[in-house]
Amino acid sequence: MHKQILFRKLISSLIWVLILLCITWGIGIGGFLLLDYTWIDAIYNSALVITSMGMQSTMVSSAGKLFVAIYGIICNIILINMMGIAISPIIQYAVSIMKHKLPFNR
Fold first, then answer.
1. Which residues lie below 8 Å from residue 52, measured CB to CB, with a gap of 6+?
2. What's the CA gap between 35 and 29, in Å, rounded?
3. pLDDT means per 10 residues in the chain (106 residues)?
4. What is the CATH number of domain 8-105?
5. What is the model's pLDDT at position 106?
6. Could you give the CA distance from residue 68 to residue 2 in angstroms, rounded to a whole number?
7. How far is residue 41's CA from residue 33's CA, in Å, rounded to a whole number?
8. In angstroms, what CA-CA distances link 49 with 33, 94, 99?
9. What are the structural domain ranges in the chain?
10. What b/e sequence results for 7-34 when a residue is b if at least 16 CB atoms lie within 10 Å of its CB, and e otherwise?
C-alpha cells in the first residue's frame, strides 16, 4: 500500500518538476529571442543558464546583462525548489517507515 502511494506521489512530483522546468526554459528562450538571438542560440543559452554552466557568448547590451543576471538567479532558486519537490516523497516515505520502527512509538 505504501509503495503505491509513494509511486503516485513520486510521479506527481516529477510532473510538477517538468512543468516548472518547461516554464523556466520558455521564459529564458523568450528573453533571449527578445535580445535578437536565433532560436537555436536562445534554446542553447537558456539551457546553459538553467544548468548554471554560463553562456556561450558574452552579453553586449546592458538590458541583456541584466536579463541574464536576473534569469540566472531565478533559475537557481527554481532549481533548488525542483530538487526539493522531486525528493520530498522519498523523504516522506522514509520518515513514515522509521516512525513505525522506533521503540518509543509502540
1. 72, 75, 76, 79
2. 10
3. 78 90 93 92 90 76 89 90 87 80 64
4. 1.10.287
5. 54
6. 43
7. 9
8. 15, 33, 40
9. 8-105
10. eeebeebeeebeeeeeebbeebbebbee
Residue 2 has which C-alpha cell?
505504501
* Closest of 70, 78, 76, 25 to residue 47, by C-alpha: 25
Measured distance between the N- and C-terminal CA atoms of the chain, rounded to whole angstroms: 21
pTM (2 decimals)?
0.75
Closest to 64 measured CA to CA, from 34, 23, 27:
34
Written as nine digits, the cell of 93 is 516515505
How is residue 57 annotated by DSSP?
S
84: cell is 526539493
